[in-house]
User: What shape does this take?
Amino acid sequence: MVKAVVTGAGGRMGGKIISLISATEGINVVGAVEVTGHPIIGCDIGQGLGLGETGVLACDKLADCIDQADVVIDFTSHESSLNYLKIARQKNRAIVIGSTGFTESEMREIKKLAKNTRCLLSPNMSVGVNVMLKVLEYCAEILKDDYDIEIVEAHHHLKKDAPSGTALQMAKVICEKRGCNIEETLVYSRRGLIGERTKKEIGIQTIRAGDIAGDHTVIFGGAGERLEFIHRAHNRDNFARGAIRAAQWIVNQKNGLYDMQDVLGLREKKSKGKKI
Assistant: This one.
């Protein structure tokens, strides 16, 4: 049985993860964390979720409940996630992070910390999105610069970072296959007299409206035709299920930094070649 601590337990994702864990075999919640002063602190995490009494009380410090856990599941903010990773490393516990918006310096620190603990970091835990990433790699390698690429992402009006981590990950895998520098390739907005579109650029457009859980569209536009790949999340369940699957997987791995491509076995393996 995998024992998990869920951070951000009073939030939308935290509550969803806790609810789905209660209906998942092989994993249970042994701790819940929220920010100091949150109404859920000191309360049974089953209250308000329709789970009945669980015997697990929410606390405001990860250090107070991490000792009894195998893994931490974290969907909070990039600042909080980095602090939780530091605690997980100190306590030799695995951690699954679904937060986005990390700066370059934060990512360098994450990679350094992951050398001494098991960390799974993914901007999107959805199985469908990660399959789509693999498809985008394949298409980018074949179509190269002959097709213009545009990415459109839409999320709820409460999302704080833009563009989404998923959109950036999509751009990253495409750039890697096209052999281009992502910083020099991405165009985040267009306005006014901008001239002709270059073959190298990849446009990313951001929409924030209502309660959209997450929509991503990638367009490969060629002469006389176009390919469109669309993923729409109807709710947060798919993200939560992916995170739970990742938590059950990461506890049995060696120290290192992983993502959902590793969990799903989609990571491209280097060919050793055949002996002739």
Observations:
- The first helix runs from residue 12 to 21.
